[in-house]
Amino acid sequence: MEMTQESRRTASERRRRELLEAADRVVLRDGPEASMNAIAAEAGITKPILYRHFGDKGGLYRALAVRHTDALLAGLRAALDSPVPRRDRVEATLDTYLAAIEARPQVYRFLMHPSDQGQTTDDRGFDVGRHAAPLLRRLGEELAQVIAERVDLGPAGGELARVWGHGIVGMMHAAGDWWLREQPCSRAQLVQHLADLLWGRLAAAGDRPGGPGF
Questions:
Q1: pTM, rounded to two decimals
Q2: Would you give the DSSP letter of residue 33?
Q3: Can you give the C-alpha Rg of the chain in angstroms?
Q4: Mean pLDDT (whole number) for 80-105
Q5: Which helix or strand (DSSP H or E) is residue 111 part of?
């Protein structure tokens, strides 16, 4: 029986999800050294078939980045919307990010430091060292939107929310990267220190009327 267009699309999406799960397993094992050959072997297919689904390592990288960024954003939103005082929500948001990179450090290194092992391009010329910035920009814009919706920052609130969103993400990324490499203190201690740094103006700002607060 011939498959309908909808059935073919569903089968393709399911196959793509299975390949991403295979890629995740290899990345968890190999980190930045994860290769298309290893991912194809894990999925039980040839590398040309893997290229057919994702185009090249860049396409696979972007698909994995979306997968993990979506999951992280869902966790951050849940922390921001938890029914606790604002300071606790700030700490929960910071902890959600740090817990995510601590739980899956190899995935983090693959996404943020793909050239740690000295590799700068793959066998099709994908520059593996320049793709972390779009992930951080997306996180910054998403956090800015959340801040703008929840905090009354006055007439220039939209601009300030974007500055804060990108600034907070930059701080979390830089501090988390350093912390993950050196482990100078516990995660709980780092959360407290970063929350102290953020707390000045944020503590004084009012909530938007009718909003969930922040």
A1: 0.78
A2: G
A3: 20
A4: 91
A5: helix 105-112
